Amino acid sequence: MLNQDLFDSLEAQKIVDTLMKGQKDYVDERLEKRETMIVSNGYAWTRPNHIDTAFASADLFEYKLQLAGQTWGYLEFETNTENMGKYC
Fold first, then answer.
1. Residue 36 in domain
2. How many domains does the chain contain in total?
3. Is residue 2 in some structural domain?
4. Band of the pLDDT at 1, cuts 50, 70, 90?
5. pLDDT tens digits along 38-83
6. Euclidean distance between CA atoms 36 and 11, whole angstroms
7. What is the DSSP string of 8-54?
8. Distance (Å, rounded) from C-alpha 31 to C-alpha 5?
9. What three-state secondary structure class fits 5?
10. Which domain holds residue 65?
11. pTM for the predicted model, two decimal places
């Protein structure tokens, strides 16, 4: 088993910050929809979209829009690290 870092400390911090931004955007929208809509439970399914969007906006990795089935869109991120090679 390899015990090597995939990202340096600055990259790792940016990844954590971006993940937290996506989560915060999601929570803020859930709270807003809870106040403005009678039924807002469906927003529980949008969390990954907020996180994907935060990562796409952070310009950390290249990505492609993909579909799971006919309707569920997600971003597939690619990175090429010196220690581990290309990941998709």
1. yes
2. 1
3. no
4. very low
5. 999 999 999 999 999 999 999 888 899 999 998 889 999 886 666 5
6. 37
7. -HHHHHHHHHHHHHHHHHHHHHHHHHHHH-S--GGGGGGHHHHHHHH
8. 37
9. coil
10. 9-87
11. 0.77
Q: Is residue 56 a part of any domain in this protein?
A: yes
Structure confidence by residue, pLDDT tens digits, 10-40: 989 999 999 999 999 999 999 999 999 999 9
Structure tokens at 19: 């993940």
Q: Which two tokens stand for residue 56?
A: 């796409």
How many residues does this entry show for the chain? Answer: 88
Whether residue 27 is contained in a domain is answered as yes
Q: What confidence score (pLDDT) does residue 82 get? A: 61
Q: Which residues contact 30 (CB under 8 A, 6 or more apart)?
A: 40, 43, 44
Rounded-to-integer distance, Cα 11 and Cα 38, Å: 41
C-alpha gyration radius of the chain: 16
The residues, any chain, with a CB within 8 Å of residue 77's CB and separated by 6 or more, are 55, 60, 61, 62, 63, 88
Is there a contact between 4 and 83 (Cβ–Cβ < 8 Å)? Answer: yes
